[in-house]
Amino acid sequence: xxxxxxxxxxxxxxxxxxxxxxxxxxxxxxxxxxxxxxxxxxxxxxxxxxxxxxxxxxxxxxxxxxxxxxxxxxxxxxxxx
Length: 81
Description:
mainly alpha
């Protein structure tokens, strides 16, 4: 039986560990919230051309609120409805 793990920061499937290579720095540590938020926002903007930046930021914060690495972060908590 194979268990699929997911990155606790972005939800990407991974084989081992808590975080994927996109969410960690060169030493294997989780990137800062600001770095992850900007990169996830940029990724969402590429997927949804024409969507206003504030809507993309809202969607990104809502998604990050579901991730164990970020759900207790003050920026995510302050954006909750």
